[in-house]
């Protein structure tokens, strides 16, 4: 796994210079722009995350955070710019393609199917089947679903319950468990804590730290709670009106500074 | 399908499992409660019970005539085509679509077979060609729906009119004799019960596809929440197109099957009546029009119930128009009942 970073392609990119293993760059976004009709959602975005690193992405509503995430999942295609995955320029053709590369996502809308049971949601689009036969291995999926949920440490009454019956926090926990319980190399979390109570939120943050310690995973975390961001992330990027205006290590910033940056914009206008 | 029982373990509302009641647990609440919880969990059960009730009623009210092999055969003639097309419509409804042209695919496909035959194709090739054309109709329905994001209601309504016209043009408005004979004829409709065997086999395959394969999961996901399905990498458009193709293919096959049995390809057969009865079968059987969930087997029982009522009314001499009145009421009542059972199910699972 660690050997891949020696790929000659990586030599060209400056941030990949810090070598193989933990710290090698997983994703780099260069000058990516995206428009929706008249709306410019993203303008010349540059961003990078390395193995074992958690990048916090903050910004106001409508700043373009989810759009950026959806470009990295292959859901949207960028209008311009390029994306390097593990040092190689990669055109993400579809969600399935991005997933096959090891990009897993907790979408802001969670991407759960309310009418399906928990265990099928946890295996959505990676259902287990009996080898060459197309039939579902429901029992095995139920077993693994229980395991995945236990590992996240969130209580779900039953893996056979329909997801639509669960609370907002439980639904988020399922989406997190689904993305975490995979062979992901890049984990994209779009406000995974928004509906969670204090205890559950802490559980998830602890889980993220554990994943980080594993060292082989790059994580982008979007959150509106800046103290959580400063607490768990290694680095923070601020997205304002489709542009990244701030990139600093968490150790070198503070909640107060982030709040000041975000509010400054409005103070000037007022 | 299989998780119906496992729900029981986790939900307090379900009846206690055999021998599993721990001391101090809720005592069994008698057969009434057990039946109610089964009704809530198995969406097909209510329609099965209503069908049994209808059979019992007509066995009594219809006199000796009802329980005879000949009468069963008549019921089959009604129910089999509705069941096959209704099973396919159930899948379409589950993935959030509907096919209003299926009845005219039923009408049109036999004439395609005749055209191929008249052009010199052997019967098996004419049959395969006709089925390919039927599948092609579904492909067009699906592509127009997905590529132009046009509602399937409009797309298939237009296709229905188009095929109705084409059927009259092809047949010049006259019924023709099917060019099929021998063993093939017996297999596709000629043998007395062949339509029943086909209907049961097709329903079984469709239900297994729905409840035991990835395709079934994707169909439910595509109808339940298309955006979430797409975000998970499911090719929603492909699932819908495939289901349109299956529906048209089966509607075309049913047209050939049914009209070979009758012994005449008739441009006035099928059409909107067949389509409505198929959709009604699916809905009465427990598939909501909202998408996301449903049952193919339910459509079989929906078709059977409609067949039994239709036949029973004939037997006891009720005016044929009354049948339509009953269908109208049955569809609405079935919808209300489904909505009610769904809300009960939600409460039971909470
Ligand atoms: N599919 C779309 N079609 C048209 N416009 C879109 C689409 N998706 C996003 N936008 C627009 O792009 C801009 C950025 O939206 P985005 O969802 O990325 O913001 P966000 O930073 O995630 O906001 P929030 O904090 O509210 O989640 C908004 O102006 C939004 O209206
Ligand atoms: Mg967002």
TrEMBL record, chain A:
Keywords, A to Z, come to: ATP-binding, Nucleotide-binding
Fetch the InterPro entries from UniProt: AAA+_ATPase, ABC_carbohydrate_import_ATPase, ABC_transporter-like_ATP-bd, ABC_transporter-like_CS, P-loop_NTPase
**All copies of domain ABC transporter, residue ranges:** 27-266
Q: Which PROSITE patterns match?
A: ABC_TRANSPORTER_1 (PS00211), ABC_TRANSPORTER_2 (PS50893)
Q: Give the matching SUPFAM superfamilies.
A: P-loop containing nucleoside triphosphate hydrolases (SSF52540)
One of the entry's Gene Ontology molecular-function terms is: ATP binding
Query: What PANTHER family does UniProt report for this protein, alphabetically?
Result: CARBOHYDRATE TRANSPORT ATP-BINDING PROTEIN MG119-RELATED, SUGAR ABC TRANSPORTER ATP-BINDING PROTEIN
Protein name stated in the entry = Sugar ABC transporter ATP-binding protein
What's the source species for this entry?
Answer: Actinocrinis puniceicyclus
From TrEMBL, chain B:
**Record's keyword annotation contains Transit peptide:** no
Domain of life of the organism in this record? Bacteria
**UniProt keyword annotations, A-Z:** Cell membrane, Membrane, Transmembrane, Transmembrane helix
Quote the subcellular location field of this record.
Cell membrane
Q: Note one Pfam family from the annotation.
A: BPD_transp_2
Q: Name one GO molecular function term.
A: transmembrane transporter activity
GO cellular component terms? plasma membrane
Compositional bias, Low complexity, is annotated for: 8-18
Region Disordered, residue ranges? 1-26
Q: Where are the transmembrane segments?
A: 45-63, 75-95, 116-140, 146-163, 196-217, 278-309, 321-341
- Residue spans making up a coiled coil are none
Just give the chief location class.
membrane
Q: How does it sit in the membrane?
A: Multi-pass membrane protein
The record, for PANTHER family, names:
ABC TRANSPORTER PERMEASE PROTEIN YPHD-RELATED-RELATED, RIBOSE IMPORT PERMEASE PROTEIN RBSC
Q: What is this protein called?
A: ABC transporter permease
Give the species this sequence originates from. Actinocrinis puniceicyclus
């Amino acid at each position: 796994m660690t050997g891949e970073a020696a790929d000659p392609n990586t030599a060209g990119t400056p941030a990949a210079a810090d070598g193989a293993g933990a710290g090698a760059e997983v994703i780099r976004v260069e000058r990516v722009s995206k428009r929706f009709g008249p709306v410019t959602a993203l303008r010349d975005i540059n961003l990078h995350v390395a193995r074992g690193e958690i990048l916090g992405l903050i910004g106001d509503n409508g700043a373009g955070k989810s759009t950026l995430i959806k470009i990295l999942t292959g859901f949207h295609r960028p209008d311009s710019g390029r994306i390097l995955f593990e040092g190689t320029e990669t055109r993400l053709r579809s969600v399935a393609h991005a997933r096959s590369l090891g990009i897993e996502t907790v979408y802001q809308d969670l991407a759960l199917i309310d009418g399906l049971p928990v265990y099928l949601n946890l295996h959505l689009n990676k259902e287990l089947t009996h080898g060459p036969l197309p039939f579902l291995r429901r029992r095995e999926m139920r077993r693994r679903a229980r395991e995945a949920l236990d590992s996240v440490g969130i209580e779900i009454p039953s893996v056979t319950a329909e997801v639509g019956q669960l609370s907002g926090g439980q639904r988020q926990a399922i989406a997190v468990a689904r993305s975490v319980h995979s062979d992901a190399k890049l984990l994209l979390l779009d406000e995974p804590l928004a509906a969670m109570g204090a205890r559950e939120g802490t559980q998830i943050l602890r889980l993220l730290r554990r994943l980080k310690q594993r060292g082989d995973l790059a994580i982008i975390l979007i959150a509106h709670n800046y103290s959580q961001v400063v607490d768990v992330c290694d680095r923070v990027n601020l997205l304002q009106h489709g542009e990244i205006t701030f990139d600093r290590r968490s150790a070198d910033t503070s909640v107060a500074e982030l709040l000041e940056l975000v509010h400054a914009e409005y103070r000037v206008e007022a | 399908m299989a998780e119906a029982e496992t729900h029981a373990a986790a939900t307090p509302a379900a009846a206690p499992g055999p021998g599993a009641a721990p001391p101090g647990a809720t005592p069994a609440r008698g057969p009434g409660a057990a039946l109610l919880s089964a009704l809530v969990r198995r969406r097909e059960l209510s329609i099965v019970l209503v069908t049994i009730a209808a059979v019992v009623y007509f066995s009594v009210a219809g006199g000796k005539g009802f329980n005879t092999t000949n009468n069963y055969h008549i019921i089959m003639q009604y129910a089999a085509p509705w069941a096959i097309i209704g099973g396919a419509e159930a899948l379409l409804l589950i993935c959030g679509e509907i096919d209003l042209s299926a009845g005219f695919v039923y009408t049109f496909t036999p004439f395609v077979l005749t055209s191929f035959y008249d052009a010199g194709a052997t019967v098996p090739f004419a049959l395969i060609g006709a089925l390919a054309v039927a599948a092609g109709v579904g492909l067009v329905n699906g592509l127009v729906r997905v590529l132009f994001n046009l509602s399937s209601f409009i797309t298939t309504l237009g296709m229905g009119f188009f095929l109705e016209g084409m059927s009259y043009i092809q047949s010049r408005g006259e019924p023709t004799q099917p060019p099929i004979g021998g063993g093939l004829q017996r297999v596709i409709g000629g043998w007395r019960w062949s339509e029943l065997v086909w209907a049961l086999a097709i329903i079984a395959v469709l239900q297994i596809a729905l409840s035991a394969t990835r395709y079934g999961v994707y169909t439910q996901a595509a109808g339940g929440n298309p955006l979430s399905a797409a975000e998970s990498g499911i090719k929603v458009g492909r699932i819908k197109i495939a289901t349109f193709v299956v529906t048209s293919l089966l509607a075309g096959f049913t047209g050939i099957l049914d009209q070979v049995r009758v012994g005449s390809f008739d441009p006035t057969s099928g059409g909107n009546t067949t389509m409505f009865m198929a959709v009604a079968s699916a809905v009465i059987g427990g598939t909501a029009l909202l998408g996301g969930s449903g049952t193919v087997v339910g459509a079989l029982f929906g078709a059977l119930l409609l067949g039994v009522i239709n036949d029973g009314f004939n037997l006891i001499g009720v005016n044929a128009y009354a049948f339509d009145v009953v269908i109208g009421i049955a569809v609405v009542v079935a919808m209300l009942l489904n909505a009610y059972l769904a809300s009960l199910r939600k409460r039971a699972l909470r």
